[in-house]
Amino acid sequence: MEEVTEHSEHHSFGDYWPSAGIVGAIFGVITFAIGLAFGYMQISSEPTGALLTPMTISGVVVCLVVAIAGAISVWHFTSEVSPFLKLGQGAIIGFLTGVAITVVSVFLNEVWHLVDPDYTEKYLEAVVANFEAMDMPAETKDQLIDSTVESIRTGRSVVQQLFYGIPMYGILNMISAMVGVKIFGKKKDQETF
Amino acid sequence: MQHRALYIVSLLALIFLVLVSLGEIIWGSSQNGLHWTSRMFYGICHQIPERTLEINGVLMAVNARCFGIFAGLLAGWLLIPAVSGLTVQKKWPVQLFFVAMLLQIIDYTGNLLGFWTNTNLSRLSLGLFFGLSIPVAISDLFYNNKK
Hints:
- The complex is a heterodimer.
- By secondary structure, chain A is mostly helical.
- Chain A has seven helices and no strands.
- The longest helix of chain A is centred in the first third of the chain and has 32 residues, at about 15-45.
- Chain A is elongated and about 60 Å long.
- Chain B is mainly α.
- Chain B is built from six helices and two strands; from the N terminus they run H-H-H-E-E-H-H-H.
- The chains are: A mainly alpha, B mainly alpha.
- At the A-B interface, helix 1, helix 3, helix 4, helix 6 and helix 7 of A face helix 1, helix 3, helix 5 and helix 6 of B.
């Protein structure tokens, strides 16, 4: 795999942004759309007391989608800029992709609260109603409701969303981008003329 | 070994991830509202208490599967110096990664559709396997074949 390093071109920081920005923006929109779709599913669903609700499934789907963005960014970079890149360059692209996803999804969340100002409250009501229907000890139920309400309410803060989102999405996408370098990065003997 | 700086930065990031995922177990309980470690993973992990590991009744900040993945990533990262020479020019590490990913999808879907009920131990084990497979898959990129 040394060839990947030896034949890497020198790229400036600005070369990474188109791939990280485009893929990050697309995945930011997808993340926002998934969260919103599952959010409205939660709002419109009857409280069944089930553990697996649109809210919990949303977390898993968003995580899976977000985690592959770094690898996709590297694929974009190898297709549009250069097929040769160092592992570290891929890691930077991945981290920047995580930053872009966070910024775009936070921005869209804020915009959506202008479109539907009651969204958070309706969502909270639906989530709490489902917890109320769960078969579990009252103390556990109260704890669960309190922590979820708290996390959804405080999660509305833009600063907090960026503060917590950037390192998490950044690290996950940094790792996934390194896998992207392994899969999409070209070696010299694969070079075609 | 090459890319030493990247290796160390990534190692520190993964140690951070695992330590934060342990939540209140090592960081103490929150004085006001939701613990900061749980906030960090909100939106990434569903954090359902029944699916979260606990020590002495104190829950981690992430569920068993996510903790398994993070712990596996860290364990695999620590193994890179030892295994990178064994994975050069080999296809099995990437195949192992795809098998581990497929197992995650099958396990989650089977449970979701009611074919079987997975447990915290099965979630943790499969998460560990998946997390471990990722550094192993890319370990050859750290191998210095000039030596």
